[in-house]
Specification:
There is one protein chain. With 243 residues, this protein is an alpha+beta fold. It has one domain: Gyrase A, domain 2. It is 44% helix and 16% strand. The protein contains 9 helices and 8 strands. It has a 4-stranded antiparallel β-sheet with strand order 2-3-8-4. The longest helix is centred in the middle third of the chain and has 27 residues. The chain is globular and about 65 Å long.
């Protein structure tokens, strides 16, 4: 559907696109070795992969984290605003630029979970455990979300049409509306993010993230594993604990 035609669009997934990156596993070992041997770019570039693997494993085990900061990964992320509000809690080693509801009219795109999304918390607030909802709950959620989104979008559009500024009109919008941002982080900060925003029962410290931010995290993890395979392998082997 065309956003320009003011039709409300319902989405059930997130978008994470790889944009750019700086460095690789060799950049991590280069940064680490300068502390003991000084700068020797020719020798460092000639390092065999098994030496890179050994040193990166050592850095991970001993929690020497700063060499992993000499890298960068840039992503484009499109997700509901409530996902971004969790994402922005990660401040160290992250840079964000998000679409502004002050400067532009937002797009009529809203999140409705897939029918497979677990709905009922059978755990606690600090240790949630979600189970599938009933057919009634699933249908009710979909119907009421879609209705609410349409109503709030109509109010938002009417306020703007009446000449009220974007930054005031947007107060009616729910956190289920989609936003967009560029996010840049280093490997160390991304490992910390992934350790908290993915659920792995075999991790040293299993986390219980919200389903929707884990969708984002898993897509970022795929790119991390592709761009920094030795670092990624060492992180997983250490129980997904950031150095």
């Amino acid at each position: 559907m065309s956003a320009a035609a003011e039709e409300v669009v319902f989405l059930d997934d997130v978008t994470v696109d790889y944009i750019d990156h700086m460095g690789d596993d060799a950049a991590v070992t280069q940064a680490a070795r300068v502390s003991v041997v000084g700068e020797n770019k020719k020798a460092q570039k000639a390092d065999a992969k098994d030496k890179e693997k050994g040193l990166i494993g050592y850095l991970m085990r001993k929690k020497h984290g700063s060499p992993f900061e000499h890298t960068a990964m840039k992503f484009y992320v499109k997700a509901p605003i409530f996902v971004f509000r969790e994402f922005h809690r990660h401040r160290i080693g992250f840079s964000y630029n998000e679409m502004s509801g002050r400067y532009t009219k937002l797009l009529p795109e809203f999140y409705v979970p897939k029918k497979s999304r677990p709905l009922v918390n059978t755990g606690g607030s600090a240790n949630p455990k979600f189970e599938p909802g009933s057919n009634f709950q699933t249908r009710l959620l979909e119907r009421l979300l879609q209705h609410g989104y349409k109503v709030t979008w109509a109010i938002y559009s009417a306020l703007i049409k009446a000449g009220i500024g974007n930054e005031v009109a947007r107060v009616i919008l729910p956190v289920g509306i989609y936003s967009q941002m560029y996010v840049t982080c280093n490997a160390r900060s991304l490992m910390s993010f992934l350790s908290l925003r993915t659920f792995e029962p075999e991790a040293t410290f299993p986390s219980n993230p919200q389903h929707e931010i884990e969708l984002v995290a898993r897509k970022m993890e795929e790119e991390f594993a592709r761009l920094f395979p030795i670092t990624y392998e060492a992180w997983v082997a250490r129980g997904r604990v950031a150095p």
